[in-house]
Amino acid sequence: MKKTTVLLLAGGLTAVSACKSTQNDTIATGMTTETTATAAATAEEVQLDYPDTKKVDQIDDYFGTKVADPYRWQENHDEQLDEWIAQQNEVTQAYLGDIDFRDEIKNRLTEIWNYPKYGAPFKEGGKYYFFKNDGLQNQSVLYVQESLEAEPKVFFDPNKLSADGTVALTALSFSKDGKYLAYGTSSGGSDWNTYHVMETATGKKLDDQLEWVKFSSPSWSGNGFFYSRYDAPTEGNKLANMNEYHKVYYHKIGTPQSQDQLVYEDKKNALRNFYGQTTDDERFLILNVSEGASGANALYYKDLKDPKSTIKPIVTNFESEYNVVDNFGDKLLVNTNKNAPRYRLVMIDPKKPQEANWKVIVPESENVLQGVSAVGGRIIATYMKDATSQIVVFDQSGKQLNTVALPTLGTVSGFNGKQSDKEVFFTFTSFTYPPTIYRYDVPNNKVTQFRKTEVNVNTDAFETKQVFYTSKDGTKVPMFIVHKKGLQLDGTNPTYLYAYGGFNISMTPSFSIANMLWLENGGVYAMPNLRGGGEYGEDWHKAGMTPNKQNVFDDFIAAAEYLIDQKYTSSEKLAVAGGSNGGLLVGAFMTQRPELAKVAIPAVGVMDMLRFHKFTIGWAWVPEYGSSADEAQFKNLYTFSPLHNIKEGVKYPATLVKTADHDDRVVPAHSFKFISELQDKGATGNPYLIRVDVRAGHGAGKPTSLVIQEYADTYAFIYKNMGVNPYQNNQ
């Protein structure tokens, strides 16, 4: 398939197929716990003067159930809301500014963050390209070299797109001959993209400028490319208006957007999205059609070599997932979970698309077939076994040839190449294994290390284990636990429990330099693979979808109980965190079991489960969650909606809600309403704060400097409320 790099730098609820989030020798100071009396005093002495938050008399009737929505006004972004955000940020920053070790955390993060970060090379137009960040650059720079031995040169520096780093590079795609580069930019973290075109030989930016692009990538065909967009939104709240009537266009280089050819639209189904891709040889245009973020899609195609060809269906229902890998001649190689929850690889003749005519190339196995590449006459399959990667290579008929050896249990990404390539690169990482790039010689099945990442941390000081704990209904759930070697299981270790649990997204081992600060100070990092994710295929996903969403929260609660029961930590030393769908997870956890954790960090979360579908792309999440417009689904949503389950007088964990004013994926009103309700009803003793990034979005494209500051604020808040000073021995 024609490869397009889409730079979604932070995970989250995507439009059509889903929400992740994001050192010399270990510091010898250790993490020092204050006395119980001091820790208790730190928590109980919290006296915060929260801003006055207006309430309105808004009552909604859901099938006879009256539901108050006193903060409905926060859904509209105006001067009144801006003033409230400023007041909340002032309270939050004053609290964080009084934490005397916050600057030490930030300084240490800055120190360990400052190391070269490389992306795997890829080949276009006979040249090699790769991304590199020198260490603290806000965005990675794209380099080019004539050969792997040649001196790299800067090709495109996205840091020059804006002075403050808030205009980000979001997508790029080279024409087949390598003559042109189409790339996308977004401002302030918004999902709205603008597409531009550059001549690769001269670096000259052409006049082409395409607006209102969303949930798309440029897919080349001849002297132009296909892309998807919405009509320009109405004036007003463009960051919250519902996105409807996605359309596919073809743009010819050198022409204005007004002359772009409308390729496909559906006037009868406003809530369908169309994602176009061309095959590597530009023979076929493939349209992935979705009605929501469940992962299931329909599949259409157009034969671009036939001028009379029209767009025709291959699959018209939305019962399963179909991902076209590439074409072999006039047939399409498709990775699907149709009648195969852990996926299988089939060959489909688009002219005879009935399932009876499919040819099975690689049948379903006990492991999840996570990704497939067609490179160098081979089929390279990435499998997932208990949330870790395995690589198996097949010939084009499906005969297994060999496996690719990996250094340890971890996660592989890459293998992006063309059928004509004889080499391809991939990146391997794990919790304590910094991303390392390998070159794979396809014909000879030879793996060589291409580039190793060097970090200023003694990663050998830590160990990773995988455990299987029992959830409420008896289901066995895997969890990774990372900590210093020789950790004492005495129930006193500060522990950071992070999860996601939804949208068929798999949480696999990966390296985070920010996690290293937590670990080097004696902390425990735990990541369970909750139901709702994709770790064990579609059955595991469906076990956490509506009406089974409570299973996800039960799995997370059981993970916390396991860590406490096994003496890794205690409820007074446990922080729970998650972003986007994971923010919903944390919100449900803290409202259902407020006594189980000391700190809660819900980031860009879906907190109002009764109205999420009314904003931007929220309607696409209905297959995952359900809708309050359906009586049975409303009753289910109402039982766990974080906003609607905050109770008067309950002492909730110390809470730092995180969001951004330009988030048009999960609109910030979710977080605004949640913190307003929490500040109003929650019992005193713990702080209930919100941290609102300005000119930032759901996470993608955030400058490095702001990311470091956010981690420093988050860790400082957690340590403070656990009664822990990680640098006490230095004072």
TrEMBL record:
Keywords linked to the UniProt accession: Hydrolase, Protease, Serine protease, Signal
Catalyzed reactions per annotation: Hydrolysis of Pro-|-Xaa >> Ala-|-Xaa in oligopeptides
PROSITE patterns: PRO_ENDOPEP_SER (PS00708), PROKAR_LIPOPROTEIN (PS51257)
The keyword Repeat is assigned to this record: no
Signal peptide, first to last residue: 1-18
Domain called Peptidase S9 prolyl oligopeptidase catalytic: residue spans: 509-723
Keyword Cell membrane found: no
Xref: InterPro entries: AB_hydrolase_fold, Pept_S9_AS, Pept_S9A_N, Peptidase_S9_cat, Peptidase_S9A, Prolyl_oligopep/macrocyclase
EC number assigned by the record: 3.4.21.26
Xref: Gene3D superfamilies: alpha/beta hydrolase, Prolyl oligopeptidase, N-terminal domain
Taxonomy, superkingdom: Bacteria
Domain Peptidase S9A N-terminal: 51-452
Membership in a protein family: Belongs to the peptidase S9A family.
Protein name: prolyl oligopeptidase
Organism in which the protein naturally occurs: Pontibacter anaerobius
Taxonomic path: Bacteria, Pseudomonadati, Bacteroidota, Cytophagia, Cytophagales
